[in-house]
Amino acid sequence: MTHPPSKCNPHRLKAFVARMLPAIVICAALLAATPGFAAKSETQQIRERLAEINREAKRVGDAYSKAYWQLERTNDELAETTRKLKKTEAELAAASGRLSQHLVEMYRQGGVDYLALVFTSQNLDDMLMRVEYAQRLGALDAKTVEDARRLRDELAARKKEVERIRARQSRDVATLKKRAAALEKKLRSLKAEYDSLMRKMARASGGSGSSRRYPPGPNGMVFPVAGPCYYADTWGAARSGGRTHKGTDIMAARGTPCVAVLAGTVRARYNSLGGKSIWLTADNGWEFYYAHLDSYVRTSGRVAAGEVIGTVGSTGNARGGAPHLHFEIHPNGGAAVNPYPYLRRMQ
Q1: Residue 292 near residue 274 (C-beta atoms within 8 A)
Q2: What value, to the nearest 5°, has the Cα angle with vertex 72 and ends 67 and 78?
Q3: HSE of 262 in the Cβ direction (CA atoms, 13 Å)?
Q4: What is the CATH number of the domain that holds 295?
Q5: How many CA atoms lie within 13 A of 303 on its CB side?
Q6: Which domain-ending residue is among 211, 233, 249?
Q7: Residue range 65-95, pLDDT digits in tens
């Protein structure tokens, strides 16, 4: 075994370096010439950059998601306050009706003359009944007046609250539009780099770089959006019409490819909620729903796993909003389940 010379002997050190330099050069040349070494290094660099792209999309996506749910909370608060306002309006109308009725009754009686009640009574029982009635009428009238005043003040306060919430709603809408525009801009810019990196990775792996198939993830399924995207766990979130969210919204740039998660058959559909949509029935019996597509690539027939079947858009009730894919999973063709855990294992 060759031992390095002592640091205190410069002549031996030079001799050692001279002996070892050819070996170092040969090892470096062998490593560079080893098939797949350079490609593996490039692939690793590409994967790291792809991961960074996803992190960039998540940062912008989190800001969008925060603005979205803030607007949802404001909308809920406005709906609840408006409901209370209408209830107060109805209660005030009823109290005003009672007050008007009592005023009419008092007008007809010409006021309450307790002395007249005493002397016109037929007997003691009649007198006591009349006095008690007059006292109850006065007490009830006083309560009705107090109720009317309280409800009037409450109604004024609720109207101010509604105005305040509507002003906040307007600000939240503006913020959401700003965040959505920023997210879409970021995703568009990242998409170009993502596509370029995917072509490079395909060539580094020995492919042509022009393949239209996308690889499966750890759970054997292909992620349904082939490009930089953002998504969060929104299963069960409230939706218009008393509905709840039965899928995952995957935010991506308009036109980003949507791919088949598994091999199977597809059928294109259109409806007012989902807009341009596709049902994929996989060979294992599971069904997958793709909604709000911008365009179709496949409308029927068999597809391979990872094959492009459509593109991300905002059709249906997503029109005017940020482009995204509404994605659902129906195991064995049954009820929808939360796609989020599956999507995490596809990446």
Answers
A1: yes
A2: 125
A3: 20
A4: 2.70.70.10
A5: 28
A6: 211
A7: 888 888 888 988 998 999 999 999 998 888 8
